[in-house]
């Protein structure tokens, strides 16, 4: 039961880098990608900060070699770039040589185009091509096409900010049960006026750099990103003599069943998710060397998550940090972004600093890791929680 | 002041979709949150927008709302003092 | 691997299916290109304090869930897996138009919160106080099938005992308007009984919520066994029949073993050809259609799943869904096939139990 699933490739594009190598450099150099929003026209430009990717849509279309009449949303563009990197780093040349699926996560989907052309759709035939790009599954279909995946299991998960963690979980289960030999898993979300204004109405956007686990945290910065992992069965790994980057060792999913958006005071859902993940990995809490926390820097999340961590780990909480200060909160993609960061941490035996932290929270005494720390790492836990009470935890390990 | 209180009750019922309620069901000193009307944190955010839109009062921190939205009485008093429209 | 059973069903659709005691006897013969559901009395199921912020999709989902759980004789459930193509689309429309119309001012959170795709699954968990596994699939016409696949896997491996799954989608005015412009919705109103012969572009759009309790424990009251399911992101029309044969073979069956074929035809002249091509391999098999009574929506296939479940349990095929003149004395095996606009295909195999 506790055997891990091999990760053989990964790809990422985020506010701190356009590929895996660039992201890693930024992480170890403590370089954050948070700035004022430049690609979206919004009245809130001076009230918020975001993690924006440098490339314009036109740049991304060029990189993918798309014709000018394409109807890719920015979510689909970002997703395709990251998924292709994952496939290439896994050394896949014939995607259909094995039963290969794709599980992608998104919350924004094609909303960037919908909000741009909402009323134009009714009158302007030249933009109507984007109408069918709105629904969440469309970006996934396009990514599958970009990867050359045909006649196979392709699906999309949307459980708010926990989505990509769930995509990884489902992918691992499908490999373990033999339904697929290989699966590309991850998520993509672009910035949009929709999410900027939505989070603004919830009054949880910070007007400055987000400060996870800080007493005076003012809320989150939204970010845009995409990241994917390639998971492969032992059969494929052996037959192809694949280099394994790390293993998906454990996973847990639970619902907080407390409130539509807020987490419960003591993090019931988060506690359950972490516990389930440990159970699947057959690990005791002591086995975890580092927690890549959800740590969105909202008042509610960091308190609830911190309490849940203490409930699981007691007096001896492992090193933990949130990387949201680097990338912003990338919503449905976050679980995949942080999966890539977790694998990089295992490969390089480093723990990333929790940037922007100044003041210890009053409610508990645990403090995130504040400096880059080198230390042998075996097992990393990554948390992702979302609206609707959705809580997910994934454990990544060096050993199978 | 009484007219304002009546108006607040009507707005709250409409804005928060309290379909089964009439203005008579809300007493001026009823607790709006918790055991009283049972409003929650999302309602508080809705009320913050109402303050802005109808009375030109901007709150930046949802925590400020707690004492203002205690009851119709406290809301009316705060609005009377701070309204700009 | 354990067998997986459908232990209860609940449907809110354009027909009066929320009353599970009858079976499509009286049909609302709308003449429309968009058909709304016939609403049950939501207040009988949801307390007013909880209902006041619920979008229609949430209400449909929560009520269909409660009906399904009640029929299964359960108090609670181990996991909730929802499929929805578009989520609560009315609230998405409301929030986008408010951003544009009010120039990003005076926006309120409720419609934003409801517009998150997992809001139905989250609200069901909240209403049932279910802290278990909770997933939402949003993959067009394979949203419901993804939920089914996930539940079947967990039950087969005995990871859970009872899982609630469902498909839910609601109609929204703006979404409808723009889909009319691009001819995905038929331009002219059509009567329910004539949709499938319309020979025109586009479909009649609908909405609905169909929920089920799946279990690895069979009961006397179980509807059917879910034998197998396969989904495809793409499938050329020329390969459809061959894939169906292959899928049946994987389950030790041939086309002759299928007693009833339940097809997702929606009357779109451009895409019903997939179903015609498949039917050619099932010349002697009885056929049923359902999208003329339910309307087309991303999770309309959950209505087809409801139909097939009820046919297997009651051994009756309602007149309105009969697609040809073939008859069967006993219905043991049903094959369902669905796709939308040539993408996201699925085969589902159900057996009498």
UniProtKB/TrEMBL annotation, chain B:
Residues 2-83 form the Carrier domain. Keywords: Phosphopantetheine, Phosphoprotein. It comes from Lacinutrix gracilariae. It comes from the Bacteria. InterPro entries: PP-bd_ACP, Ppantetheine_attach_site. The keyword Phosphoprotein applies. NCBIfam families: PRK09184.1. Coiled coil: none annotated. The keyword Metal-binding does not apply. This is Phosphopantetheine-binding protein. Pfam families: PP-binding. PROSITE patterns: CARRIER (PS50075), PHOSPHOPANTETHEINE (PS00012).
């Amino acid at each position: 039961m506790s055997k891990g699933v091999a990760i053989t490739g990964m790809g990422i594009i985020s506010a701190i880098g356009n590929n895996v190598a660039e992201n890693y450099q930024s992480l170890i150099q403590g370089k954050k990608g948070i700035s004022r929003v430049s690609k979206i026209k919004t009245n809130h430009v001076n009230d918020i900060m975001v993690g924006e990717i440098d490339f314009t849509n036109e740049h991304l279309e060029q990189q993918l070699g798309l014709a000018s009449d394409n109807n890719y949303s920015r979510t689909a563009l970002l997703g395709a770039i990251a998924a292709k990197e994952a496939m290439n780093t896994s050394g896949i040349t014939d995607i259909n040589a094995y039963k290969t699926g794709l599980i992608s996560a998104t919350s924004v989907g094609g909303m960037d185009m919908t909000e741009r052309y909402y009323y134009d759709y009714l009158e302007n035939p030249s933009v109507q091509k984007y109408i069918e790009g709105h629904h969440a599954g469309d970006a996934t279909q396009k990514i599958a096409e970009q990867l050359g995946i045909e006649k196979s299991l392709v699906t999309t998960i949307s459980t708010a900010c926990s989505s990509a963690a769930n995509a990884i979980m489902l992918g691992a289960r499908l490999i373990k049960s033999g339904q697929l030999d290989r699966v590309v898993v991850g998520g993509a979300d672009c910035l949009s006026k929709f999410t900027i204004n939505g989070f603004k109405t919830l009054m949880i956007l910070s007007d400055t750099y987000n400060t996870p686990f800080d007493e005076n945290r003012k809320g989150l910065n939204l970010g845009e990103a995409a990241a994917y992992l390639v998971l492969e069965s032992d059969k494929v790994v052996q037959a192809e003599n694949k280099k394994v980057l790390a293993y998906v060792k454990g996973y847990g999913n639970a619902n907080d069943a407390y409130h539509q958006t807020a987490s419960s005071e003591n993090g019931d859902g988060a506690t359950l998710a972490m516990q389930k993940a440990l159970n699947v990995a057959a690990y005791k809490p002591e086995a975890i060397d580092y927690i890549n926390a959800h740590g969105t820097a909202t008042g509610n999340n960091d308190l609830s998550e911190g309490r849940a961590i203490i409930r699981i780990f007691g007096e001896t909480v492992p090193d933990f940090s949130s990387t949201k200060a680097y990338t912003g909160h990338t919503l449905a993609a976050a679980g995949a972004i942080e999966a890539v960061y977790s694998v990089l941490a295992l490969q390089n035996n480093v723990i990333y600093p929790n940037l922007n932290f100044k003041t210890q929270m009053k409610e508990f005494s645990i403090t995130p890791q504040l400096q880059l720390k080198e230390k042998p790492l075996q097992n990393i836990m990554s948390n992702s929680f979302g609206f609707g009470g959705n809580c997910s935890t994934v454990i990544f390990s060096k050993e199978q | 002041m009484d007219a304002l209180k009546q108006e607040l009750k009507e707005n709250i019922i409409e804005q928060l979709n309290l379909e089964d309620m009439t203005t008579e069901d809300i007493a001026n000193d009823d607790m709006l949150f918790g055991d009283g009307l049972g409003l929650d944190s999302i309602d508080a955010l809705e009320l913050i927008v109402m303050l802005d839109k109808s009375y030109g009062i901007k709150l930046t921190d949802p925590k400020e709302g707690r004492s203002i939205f205690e009851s119709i009485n406290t809301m009316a008093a705060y609005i009377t003092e701070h309204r700009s429209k | 691997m354990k067998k997986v059973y459908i232990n209860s069903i609940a449907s809110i659709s354009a027909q009066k299916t929320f009353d599970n005691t009858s079976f499509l006897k009286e049909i609302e013969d709308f003449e429309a290109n968009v058909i709304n559901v016939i609403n049950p009395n939501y207040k009988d199921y949801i307390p007013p304090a909880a209902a006041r912020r619920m979008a229609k999709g949430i209400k449909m989902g929560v009520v269909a869930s409660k009906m399904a759980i009640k029929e299964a004789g359960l108090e609670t459930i181990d996991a909730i897996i929802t499929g929805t193509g578009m989520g609560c689309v009315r609230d998405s429309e409301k929030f986008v138009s408010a951003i544009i119309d009010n120039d990003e001012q005076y926006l309120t959170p409720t419609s934003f919160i409801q517009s998150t795709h997992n809001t139905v699954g989250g609200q069901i968990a909240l209403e049932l106080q279910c802290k278990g596994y909770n997933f939402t699939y949003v993959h067009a016409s394979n949203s419901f099938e993804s939920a089914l696949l996930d539940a079947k896997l967990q039950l087969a491996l005995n990871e859970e005992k009872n899982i609630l799954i469902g498909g839910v989608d609601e109609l929204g005015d703006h979404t409808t308007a723009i889909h009319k412009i691009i001819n995905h919705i038929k331009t002219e109103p059509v009567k329910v009984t004539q949709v499938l012969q319309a020979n025109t572009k586009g479909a009649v759009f609908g909405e609905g919520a169909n929920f089920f309790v799946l279990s690895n424990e069979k009961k006397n009251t179980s509807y059917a066994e879910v034998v197998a399911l396969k989904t495809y992101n793409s499938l050329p029309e020329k390969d459809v029949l061959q894939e169906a044969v292959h899928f049946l073979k994987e389950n030790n069956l041939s086309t002759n073993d299928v007693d009833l074929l339940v097809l997702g035809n929606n009357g779109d002249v451009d895409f019903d050809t997939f179903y015609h091509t498949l039917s050619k391999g099932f010349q002697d098999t009885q056929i049923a259609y359902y999208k003329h009574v339910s309307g087309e929506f991303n999770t309309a296939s959950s209505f087809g799943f409801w139909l097939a479940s009820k046919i297997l349990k009651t051994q009756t095929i309602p007149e309105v869904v009969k697609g040809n003149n073939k008859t069967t004395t006993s219905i043991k095996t049903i094959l369902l096939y669905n796709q939308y606009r040539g993408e996201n295909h699925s085969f589902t195999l159900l057996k009498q139990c």
